[in-house]
Amino acid sequence: MNNESHIQNNTALIFAGGNAPLPYLSQFLPQAQWNIAADSGLDHALALGVTPDVVVGDSDSVSEEALAFAHSLEIDFISAPTDKDFTDTELALSHAVHLGAQKIVVVSAGGGRFDHAHGLLASLFHPEWAHIKIEAFIDTAHIFVLHGPSSLQISGKQNSLVALHAMNGMAHGVNTEGLRWQLHNESLAPWVSRGVSNELTGIFGEISLQSGALLVVQPEAFIQTPKES
Q: Domain extents for the chain?
């Protein structure tokens, strides 16, 4: 998961609001073509050393200091009313899609209000965005969105945790390689926990499915060890 030094074209990096993300996440962030802040995600982007190109939302939770700094740099604002049908992060996702992003990475601290956390995960699986590669850094977890038919290669430490959760209904034709408990052309339902607490047997793994959608989670991908501090 080394940070890439060059700009990844057609990639959007979105900073969500809520609690502040882990400071050392900055070393994993891609150099994206578009940097987007959702409301108080502006504070989090600046704290991680990223200056957004645009701020999306109602600005009801962003700090006055961050707002002043953004205005001094003439950063664009796409304002939304406080009373609305979408979260600021979902509006930021929609804006990234409108820009033509082919890959989107969302950064969030996790925790906080459960309804916001669930809403974030649900919005990542919008059926109309199935053609876009979507990932998220949420607290210490690296999250991937997988729509069938498709496959995904992951990497991590040997014996590190991997979880698979069906989203938007049944996931059919699920296959895995490089995991301790393998799945072979099987189906996962969103109401079962069978896919929780699997493990990488080496440093690479592969997940594929024929139809449906999978939430692939490496829950400890960004845990910092003493040697890394």
A: 7-139, 146-222
Cα–Cα distance, 31 to 44 (Å, whole number): 16
Q: Domain 146-222 - what CATH class?
A: alpha beta
The domains spanning 7-139 and 146-222 adopt the same CATH topology? yes
Q: Which of 195, 102, 210, 204 is nearest to 151 (CA)?
A: 210
pTM, two decimals, is 0.90
What pLDDT is attached to residue 19? 77
How far are the Cα atoms of 27, 149, 217 from residue 155, in angstroms, in the given order?
Answer: 17, 21, 12
For domain 7-139, the CATH architecture is 3-Layer(aba) Sandwich (3.40)
What SS3 string covers the chain? Answer: CCCCCCEEEEEEEEECCCCCCCHHHHHHCCEEEEEEEECCHHHHHHHCCCCCCEEEECCCCCCHHHHHHHHHCCCEEEECCCCCCCCHHHHHHHHHHHHCCCEEEEEECCCCCHHHHHHHHHHHCCHHHCCCEEEEEECCEEEEEEECCEEEEEECCCCCEEEEEEEEEEEEEEEEECECCCCCCEEECCCCCCCCCEEECCCEEEEEECEEEEEEEECCCCCCCHHHC
* Closest C-alpha to 155, from 204, 198, 221: 204
Give the model's confidence band at 229: pLDDT under 50 very low, under 70 low, under 90 confident, else very high. Answer: very low
d(C-alpha 123, C-alpha 145), whole Å: 11
